[in-house]
Amino acid sequence: MISIMAKTKTPRKTLPTGIGKVLKRLHYPLDVILLCVRWYVAYSLSLRNLEEMMAERGIEVDHSSVHRWVIKLLPGLEKAFRKGKRPVGKSWRVDETYVKQLVARFSPV
User: Is residue 8 part of a domain?
Assistant: First the structure.
C-alpha cells in the first residue's frame, strides 16, 4: 500500500537561482520580505497599509522599501512559478446550456 505522503511533492528548500541573487543584498530577514511581497500581490494592499500592518507586528519597514522589493522580486518569482504551471490544452469543453444562452443572446431577432 502506497501512502499519500509518498505521492506528494516535498516543499522546495531553496529558492530559484535568479531570486537568490536578488535577495543577497537585502538587509531584512527573508521571511519578512517574502511576506510583504506576498501580501502586496495577493491582497492588493497599498504600500502604506502594508507598512502599517508590519508596524503592528513590531517590524519597522518603510513603504518605499516594500516597493523596491516588489519591483526586484516579482519578475523572478513570476518566471520561477510560470515554469511549474501546466500548459493549457487546445481543446475546451463547454456545457450545452452555455451554448444555448450564447445562441439566444447573439441571434438576430
Answer: no
Please give the grid coordinates belonging to residue 3: 501512502
Q: How many separate domains does the chain show? A: 1
Per-residue three-class SS string for the chain: CCCHHHHCCCCCCCCCHHHHHHHCCCCCCHHHHHHHHHHHHHHCCCHHHHHHHHHHCCCCCCHHHHHHHHHHHHHHHHHHHHHHCCCCCCCCCCCHHHHHHHHHHHCCC
pLDDT per position as a tens digit, 57-97:
999 999 999 999 999 888 888 887 787 777 777 777 766 66
Closest by alpha carbon to 62, among 82, 41, 33? 33
Q: Residue 63 is part of which domain span?
A: 27-76
pTM exceeds 0.85, yes or no: no
Sign of CA dihedral 41, 47, 53, 59: positive
